[in-house]
Design brief:
- 36% of the residues lie in helices and 14% in strands.
- The protein has two domains: 11-116 and 308-325, NAD(P)-binding Rossmann-like Domain (Rossmann fold), CATH 3.40.50; 118-298, Rossmann fold.
- It contains 13 helices and twelve strands.
- By secondary structure, the protein is of the alpha/beta class.
- Helix 6 runs parallel beside helix 9.
- The radius of gyration is 22 Å and the shape is elongated.
- The strands form two sheets. It has a seven-stranded parallel beta sheet with strand order 8-7-6-9-10-11-12, covered by helices on one side.
- The relative contact order is 0.14.
Length: 337
């Protein structure tokens, strides 16, 4: 995807914070002609419009996919009201928020920051897996109870080496996880679009074959985008095919799993445990049983955050802005399913 160079400086919608931080780098990329910084307020008042926008993390703020704050909605409304908008870059790797789907349907190019948080997300997923494998939730509960409960007393955990991890998705996160899990000694199965896409020394199956590998899966790691194909991928049928000793690690999107069915499986011993960073509804409702399940680690969609992540997200925007300036194709272009 190449966006044709404008015959004037591009008008870019940026937050105050991002505009201040990135001004020198944007000017360096766009050269002497520079750019015009636009605000959402100007767009609402009709005094300016935007050609491009960087939806930085401070714009989405405390919003989630399901709960949008008025401040975030104000910017979204400005984008939807634009008649000139050509390109929106977003801070996240996922592009499944309705606003971005609506913009793409209108012909606006949407690019993501895929890869910016891959290392941190993969580290978090690995931490969740190791914590469950070594029964840290139970050990932590015993610590809080001041109870001395060594494994030989409560049951020895199985060794990870020789177990099978099925990784759904082969982006930067899935690739890092495969490398690390192989080093630990796990056997790897990768689920991707086509089984013809070979990976050295790794078994690959297509999404059509997903259910067929579940009976041999000890660890199901979900690192895929949310699409029509992956929505409810881990269905009641899929859960019924899994070992009762199996675990789920989800750092993709909550809708990839049939959450009520997973909860039922966790509650009745048909699934051993789960590390979940994403949920069907976010924030996770206070009445959700996932909060209190002893075999579940639940975190508030924080797997990708570190003190360097905001800079890496901005770098993805700047990288694509450079491609625009050189009339080269963008990276991380989102597609409607």
């Amino acid at each position: 995807m190449i966006i044709k160079k404008l015959n004037r400086p591009p008008r870019i919608l940026l937050s105050d914070k991002t505009a201040q931080e990135l001004a020198p780098k944007i000017a360096e990329i766009l050269g002497p002609d520079g750019y015009v910084r636009v605000t959402a307020k100007q767009m609402h008042e009709g005094t300016a419009d935007a050609d491009f926008c960087f939806v930085s993390r401070d714009i989405t703020g405390g919003s989630t996919k399901h709960n949008i704050t008025p401040e975030t909605q104000y910017v979204y409304d400005a984008l939807m009201g634009s008649t000139a908008l050509q390109w929106v870059h977003i801070h996240s790797a996922g592009v499944d928020r309705q606003i971005f789907l609506d913009l793409m349907a209108r012909g606006v190019t949407v690019t993501s920051s895929s890869g910016a948080s891959a290392g941190v997300v993969a580290q978090t997923a690995l931490t969740g897996l190791l914590a469950l494998a070594r029964r840290f939730p139970q050990l932590a509960a015993a610590q809080r109870a001041h109870a001395w409960e060594p494994f030989f007393k409560v049951g020895l955990p199985p060794e990870l080496e020789g177990q099978t991890a099925t990784i759904v998705g082969w982006g930067p996160i899935g690739q890092k996880l495969a490398t690390w899990l192989k080093a630990i000694g796990l056997n790897i199965i990768v689920v991707r679009q086509s089984a013809a896409s070979t990976i050295p020394h790794t078994r690959v199956v297509s999404f059509a074959e997903f259910n067929s590998v579940l009976p041999e899966t000890d660890w199901l790691l979900l690192a895929c985008p949310l699409t029509a194909q992956t929505n409810n991928l881990v269905s009641a049928t899929a859960l019924g095919l899994m070992k009762h000793s199996a675990h789920i690690i989800n750092i993709s999107r909550g809708a990839v799993i049939d959450e009520p069915e997973m909860i039922d499986a966790l509650k009745h011993g048909r699934l051993a445990g789960a590390y979940l960073d994403v949920f069907a509804q976010e924030p996770l409702p206070t009445e959700s049983p996932l909060w209190d399940m002893p075999n579940v680690i639940a975190t508030p969609h924080t797997a990708g955050f570190s003190d360097a992540i905001l800079q890496r997200m901005a770098e993805k925007f700047l990288e694509n802005l450079g491609f625009y300036a050189r009339s080269e194709p963008f990276i991380n272009v989102a597609r409607l399913a």
